[in-house]
Design brief:
By secondary structure, the protein is mainly α. The chain folds into two domains: 1-126, no CATH class; 139-323, no CATH class. The chain has 14 helices and no strands.
């Protein structure tokens, strides 16, 4: 699969998720506002599609010639996804996190969130090697296209997912996502927090290195090779900051955290940054996720967007000017 095929696949898959998000919100709107179940069958069809997908993933994992611990993880993650289709399981989960077990939107959110660990574990069954990456021609244009396409679509998924165009107007959507204007003092505060996070990241990396726990070197080298076009250019570094602040923060801190809580949201956030394998970077991102989750709760998603953008740009700039 070449770079442009991957981008087309990315756009198609996210567009389908956005469509599903719109439809399940339409279902909840007709039930809660109009008092009719006229759209319920649409949600049941979507849930059936998820069930078929998770069953197919389990079957493929069982028949795969390559088996390791991640094969078991894929199966368990898929079984967990299937369990969310059971009302009793959602009712039990509602005692732990603030979801409505009868909400079609919340059911969709649970089913979709399991795609993150399932996709990760699938990729780890036969992980991408450094040799595979070196055989590919990764250009700045393709990297920027993929980065912005993914994060713009993530932002659209977050906005539509919380009910824009169905259950909420734009003002209500902004409030649900935690988007508020920052004062100059708050802006400076968010940048200061980002600076602290940069020192924290450097400190954690040094500690793990000194303890001989620096992680899987192959994974680190693969990530470095894939991100090289972005980190080797000013526009790439700025894009890494701005795109992530837009897409990742709206999805995780904006849409998911108010329902899933800081811990679960931070775990999902860390897993999305482990596409090519688990490493020390996964732990660092998890810690940063907890930190931004705290500031989302205390301040706003806008605040964490500034933190995230500033942090990524500062880390990228340090590597660019001080290699």
């Amino acid at each position: 699969m070449n770079d442009y095929t991957e981008i087309i696949f990315l756009i198609a898959s996210f567009s389908l998720l956005i469509l599903f998000a719109y439809l399940v919100n339409k279902v909840d709107y007709t039930i809660q506002v109009k008092g009719t179940n006229s759209w319920s069958s649409v949600s049941h069809i979507i849930q059936a599609l998820y069930a078929c997908m998770y069953l197919l993933v389990i079957l493929i994992a069982l028949l795969a010639t390559t088996k390791n611990i991640y094969t078991i993880a894929v199966i368990l993650a898929s079984i967990l996804g299937l369990s969310f289709l059971i009302p009793a399981v959602r009712k039990g989960l509602a005692k732990l996190i603030p979801i409505n077990p009868n909400s079609h939107v919340h059911t969709f959110a649970l089913l979709t969130s399991i795609l993150i660990p399932t996709t990760l574990f699938q990729s780890l069954i036969m992980p991408t090697s450094l040799a595979d990456v070196q055989q590919k021609t990764i250009t700045l244009f393709s990297s920027l296209s993929s980065l912005w396409a993914q994060n713009i679509l993530c932002a659209a998924l977050a906005v539509i997912g919380v009910g824009y165009l169905t259950r909420r107007n734009w003002q209500q959507t902004r409030e649900r996502l935690g988007l508020y204007r920052l004062s100059f003092k708050q802006l400076l505060g968010a940048i200061a927090v980002a600076i602290v996070f940069v020192f924290l990241q450097s400190g954690l990396t040094m500690v793990y290195t000194q303890l001989g726990l620096s992680g899987e070197q192959e994974v680190l080298k693969v990530n470095e090779a894939l991100m090289a076009p972005l980190f080797n250019s000013v526009i790439g570094i700025i894009s890494i900051g701005l795109a992530a602040a837009l897409g990742e923060e709206l999805v995780f801190r904006g849409a998911l955290q108010p329902r899933f809580g800081i811990i679960l949201t931070s775990i999902l956030f860390a897993l999305t940054h482990s596409n090519y394998g688990l490493s020390i970077g996964t732990i660092v991102v998890l810690v940063l996720g907890f930190g931004m989750g705290y500031f989302r709760k205390r301040c706003s998603t806008t605040y964490t967007m500034v933190i995230h953008a500033s942090y990524n740009i500062m880390v990228g700039a340090l590597g660019y000017f001080f290699p």
